[in-house]
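Teaching note: in complex prediction, the entire set of molecules is handled at once rather than each chain in isolation. The prompt given to students was simply: 'Predict the structure of this complex.' The entities are:
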Amino acid sequence: MTGETGHALRGDYSRARPDCTVDQDWEAYTEADHDLWRRLYGRQASLVPGHACEEFIAAMDVCDFGAAIPRFDAINAKLGPATRWQLVAVPGLVPDLTFFEHLANRRFPVTVWIRKPEEFDYIVEPDIFHDFFGHVPMLFDPVFADYIQAYGRGGIKAHELGAIEMLARLYWYTVEFGLIDTPRGLRTYGAGILSSGGEIGYCLESPNPNRIGFDLLRIMQTRYKIDTFQETYFVIRDFRQLFDATAPDFTPYYEALRGREPHAPSAVLATDRVYHRGTSPARAA
Ligand code: PHE
Ligand code: CO
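The expected output is the structure of the full assembly:
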């Protein structure tokens, strides 16, 4: 198994079932693992107020997972009744089609291993802290939960159509690095941001990155960087906008975009609705 950059993945895939799931084996975590979790959680929880969207904050309280590495079973007992989602344990990144099939069936794959203490601030591959802290609270929101399932279904289709690269950009700029315009100002719902000690402040407060109104086709033709803070964030008005904009069949969109040169991660186009820090862009007449 190799990751996006072709390097070997660090999880143990030897015991994985054909759908790439494993048992979490919670008893195998050491006291040092739990301690690292508590420290990661403590820092991130202190940054969430004022940065995360209210849906995320509310679900964090419901999950109550700060004291130790969470047991997936215990969270599933809360998540199932809330939105009919379940977490499944995986050794790390899984093949695209496997990932889409889990999502399409309302199963969210969560990596079992935790980073090393020296990776406290930065990790290349997603670990349990990213997957859990970043993604799981959002699965408690009914509209967002439906969006992720629809994304999984769309992924299976994109796989057949050879359009995964375009669809992956949508996941990146929404599920991982999305911003949302709330009555209290811009906030984030993106897991890659919410699990990051640095980017959670940067994405909202730095004057450097572009913040641009959500535009599905624009996003699907914009490249992204995986090893630095993002140069551009896309802003949704609410989760319903995201769900509705992505409801149509993407087949003609893929056709239209296929031959086009993608935009650079830093590009700002004349047609973009640009947000200035904390404020909504003037609505075009
Ligand atoms: N409607 C999309 C399609 O037909 C599927 C999709 C839904 C993709 C939600 C992404 C997010 O391909
Ligand atoms: Co993620």
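Point out the following to students. Residues 76 and 86 are 5 Å apart (CA to CA). The mean pLDDT is 95.
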